[in-house]
Amino acid sequence: MKGLYIVTPDWDDTQKLLDVTESALRGGAALVQYRHKTAGPALRQEQADRLLKLCRRYQRPFIINDYVDLCVALNADGVHVGGTDASVAQIRAALGPGKLVGASCYGSLQLARDAHQAGASYVAFGGFYLSRVKKYPVTTPPDIIAQSKAAIPLPTVVIGGMTQENAAPLVASGADMVAAISSVYMAADPEAAARGFARLFEE
Predict the structure, then answer these.
(1) Could you report the per-residue pLDDT of 17-71, keeping only the tens digit for each?
(2) What is the number of other CB atoms lying within 10 angstroms of the CB of residue 129?
(3) Residue 180: which pLDDT band, with cuts at 50, 70 and 90?
(4) Phi, psi at residue 93, to the nearest 5°?
(5) Candidates 60, 92, 99, 134; catalytic one
(6) How many domains does the chain have?
(7) Is 134 a residue of the active site?
(8) To 10 degrees, what angle do helices 144-151 and 109-118 make?
(9) Beta pairing partners, 179
(10) CB burial class (10 A; 0-12, 13-18, 19+) of residue 3?
(11) Which one from 92, 99, 104, 121 is the annotated catalytic residue?
(12) Which range of residues forms the domain containing residue 15?
């Protein structure tokens, strides 16, 4: 797990969602998370199914935010959960050992330790900066990345208001992936935006 981790916005326009996601994949996005907090079951199923097929074409992992049943039904690559969702241990038990299970740990090293013990594949920290999409306190200290790398043998993802500029020092301090929503999906040129993020991991 290394590089740009894109998270979908709450778009009901499936074709637009697919088009922009494909642009980001062409630009080098390494992983796609489907997250749509307001979609009904039918739309969620359709969008996830089509995004999965797209990711298969580009040979990139596709994970689903929260919906374990949808992950199982589509045979997606895993599930990401927040601190208030089903526990990592429950999801690991439901999905088995071969799938990715990601855990939001906010600014807490203890949550990351707990997630590792429960079977998480990676831990996500943030918010680090103000986000246009997610509403959470910007309280995560940048040094948590180095602390996590020293204490927990799992890849680290950083999220929250990520731009190429403000993600660079976090990557330099050891972040394995940068999660972005608006900096890619709302960019004038999503492919170029994705390429810019991907370049952070080559330097």
Answers:
(1) 999 999 999 999 999 999 999 999 999 999 999 999 999 999 999 999 999 999 9
(2) 16
(3) very high
(4) -65, -40
(5) 134
(6) 1
(7) yes
(8) 30
(9) 5
(10) buried
(11) 104
(12) 3-200
